[in-house]
Design a protein that fits this description.
Blueprint (H helix, E strand, L loop, with lengths): L1 E7 L10 H15 L5 E5 L3 E6 L4 H8 L5 E10 L4 H12 L6 E8 L8 H15 L4 E2 L6 E7 L4 E4 L3 E5 L8 E5 L5 H11 L3 E8 L6 H18 L1 E8 L1 H10 L5 H19 L4 E3 L12 H8 L6 E2 L7 H11 L2 H4 L21 H8 L4 H10 L2 E6 L7 E2 L2
Parallel strand pairs: 5-6, 5-7, 10-11, 10-13, 11-12, 13-14
Antiparallel strand pairs: 1-3, 1-4, 2-3, 4-8, 4-9, 7-8, 12-15, 15-16
Helix pairs in contact: 3-4, 5-6, 5-10, 7-8, 8-9, 8-13
């Protein structure tokens, strides 16, 4: 027998006529993730199988834990001998290494020419184990050890309880999105949830030096590196927002500062997204959390772009968002005490029900189209990879 890693798809199996596209994308994503080790990958519509050197199995599993599209990760064993006596001997040799008191045998016979059906195999293997191992019994409802056997055309697979995968869709199957990424808790979680639905992300960050520091920008880069574990890499667009922000501060009533500032961010994000073939904007807005996230504010701010805006955490409360942030590894970074440009000029009494006409009138007081063009033309792009030992690459 030889060790093999087996992947179960879960949600992908519902795709019917499109399933090959989804599974092929998953295979390509995994191949890129494992390109630094020797591997072989093949698949059918029920399973994916990965061969690596035994010394690389733990490394491979740790990488696969961050791959969307996988329901379960299993270390299994493969034999080319379909003889039932050898199947019995192989199962016994494998389970003797395990500590259990109850078990169940579950056989899948995709080779319909095999002379023994699945139920018969279950009974044969179960009876053989009961005779050869003391103090164990069968429990078909809640076994400590589930022994799964797959009898295929030219091979038999053996495997046991697996590791839960992330589920979702393979990254890239649903196109590209532009994540509006601040240094806070919410937007990285929104990005993670968008990636889970198969969206390949780029990100945009608004800095405002000298009002925001290099530490704030570095925090965002670190957040991108965490998200890159799930997204493979992230192209980060950095916009210098200082002149726009100072112009708004000097010319517009303070209660509308946040509304106008967010409208400018949306315009810039939509242009950058369009230029990079992204289909949607993604952000971490949560209904009612701050003044700019009331329904009225969202409506007035959103109206400046035609591109769809996806808000994955819109209906989550803060504690739910924090729980996800801790799980994915962004919480400690997000809570570092470095302010972003959304928090440095917050007025004491921001409008919570802004008026669209009034917002447009305020915008006429500043040359915002010229300022937006200037900010986009001078923006920088970094390619953030998942490899922590690699310094991010400046693309422009």
């Amino acid at each position: 027998m030889e060790k093999i890693i087996i992947l179960k798809y879960g949600e992908l199996s519902t795709k019917k006529e499109n399933i090959n596209y989804f599974i092929k994308t998953l295979k390509n994503n995994i191949s890129k993730l494992l390109e630094d080790i020797n591997n072989q990958i093949y698949y059918d519509f029920g399973r994916m199988y990965i061969y690596v050197n035994e010394k690389d199995i733990e490394f491979t599993i740790n990488r696969l834990k961050n791959v969307f599209g996988i329901l379960e990760i299993i270390v299994g064993y493969k034999s080319n001998d379909l003889n039932i006596e050898n199947i019995k001997a192989n199962v016994l040799s494998l389970v003797k290494e395990k500590d259990f008191r109850t078990f169940k045998v579950k056989t899948k016979r995709s080779n319909k020419k095999y002379p023994i059906n699945s139920m018969e195999v279950n009974n044969i293997i179960g009876g053989y184990l009961l005779k050869n191992i003391s103090d164990i019994k069968v429990d078909v409802h809640n076994p400590e050890l589930l022994i799964e056997i797959e009898i295929r055309n030219n091979e038999v697979l053996f495997y046991f309880n697996g590791i839960k995968g992330l589920g979702g869709y393979p990254v890239g199957t649903l196109g590209k999105g532009m994540l509006m990424l601040s240094g806070g808790i919410d937007s990285p979680v929104a990005g993670y949830l968008a990636i889970k639905r198969g969206v390949k992300l780029e990100a945009i960050y608004f800095e405002s030096p000298p009002h925001t520091s290099e530490f704030a920008k570095d925090k965002v880069i670190r957040l991108c590196r965490v998200l890159a574990k799930y997204n493979a890499s992230i192209k980060l667009h950095i916009i210098n927002f200082t002149e726009i922000q100072e112009t708004i501060l000097k010319n517009i009533s303070h209660e509308y500062l946040i509304t106008i500032m967010r409208r400018m961010m949306y315009r810039i994000s939509a242009i950058i997204a369009h230029n990079n073939k992204c289909n949607i904007l993604v952000n971490g807005e949560s209904i009612g959390q701050v003044a700019s996230q009331t329904l009225t504010s969202m409506k007035v701010i959103n109206e400046v772009v035609k591109m769809p805006v996806i808000r994955p955490v819109a209906c989550f409360d803060k504690l739910e968002i924090i729980d996800i942030a801790k799980k994915i590894g962004t919480y400690e970074i997000s809570t570092l005490p470095y302010e972003d440009c959304c928090t440095i000029f917050v007025p004491l009494h921001p409008v919570i029900n802004p008026n669209s006409v009034k917002a447009q009138e305020y915008e006429k007081l500043i040359p915002y189209e010229e300022l937006i063009y200037k900010a986009i033309k001078s923006h920088k792009v970094l390619n953030i990879t998942l490899k922590e030992d690699n310094k991010y690459q400046d693309l422009l």
